[in-house]
């Protein structure tokens, strides 16, 4: 074979693109000399001298008192968040107080059935909402009729 024929074969081989299956199944052979020279600049080092770390800026240096977590000591919450927290706290306190008073009323009843009745009437709907199938569903006419009866 002549040199021209070999060059044509080399060009034909370089023009062939591998398929996806070939790329996934093939194991690339990496030339370490080529990759090192391409990725980094070669600096001759002496093995007995330690490699010096790059210098850090003053803001990058951590002292033993510093932590990785940010500091929230100077954090100020928006006023609407503070009001919402107060509102939730008051609601929890009122609910606890109401349940305490109901328990006292239950304990003061002469008969056990009266105590159970008080608990069912006051606490159960507050602790657990009624299931949807237990609620009374009325049509518009029935609601109107009920309102008339309640007024009289």
Layout: helices, strands, pairs:
Elements: H1 3-15, H2 20-25, H3 32-39, H4 79-108, H5 112-122, H6 124-127, H7 140-151
Helix pairs in contact: 4-5
Report the radius of gyration as a whole number of Å: 41 Å
The major pleated sheet works out as: none
Distance between the termini: 117 Å
Low-confidence stretches: none
- Number of E strands: 0
Question: Tags for this entry?
Answer:
152 residues; mainly alpha; 7 helices
Briefly say what this structure is.
With 152 residues, this protein is an all-alpha fold.
Task: Describe what this molecule looks like in 3D.
InterPro entries: DUF4790. Residues 1-28 are annotated as: Disordered. It holds the Pfam family DUF4790. It is a single chain. By secondary structure, this protein is mainly α. 55% of the residues lie in helices and 0% in strands. The protein is built from seven helices and no strands. It starts with a helix and ends with a helix. The mean pLDDT is 73.
């Amino acid at each position: 074979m002549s040199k021209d024929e070999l060059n044509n074969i080399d060009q034909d081989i370089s023009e062939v693109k591998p398929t996806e299956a070939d790329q996934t199944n093939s194991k690339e052979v990496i030339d370490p000399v080529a990759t090192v020279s391409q990725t980094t600049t070669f600096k001759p080092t002496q093995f007995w001298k330690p490699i010096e770390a790059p210098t850090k800026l003053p803001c990058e240096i951590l002292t033993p008192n510093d932590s990785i977590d940010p500091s929230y000591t100077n954090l100020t919450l928006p006023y609407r968040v503070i009001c919402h927290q107060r509102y939730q706290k008051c609601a929890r306190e009122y609910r606890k107080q109401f349940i305490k008073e109901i328990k006292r009323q239950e304990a003061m009843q002469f008969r056990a059935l009266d105590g159970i009745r008080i608990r069912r009437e006051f606490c159960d709907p507050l602790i657990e909402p009624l299931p949807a199938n237990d609620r009374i569903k009325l049509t518009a006419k029935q609601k109107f009729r009920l309102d008339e009866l309640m007024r009289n």
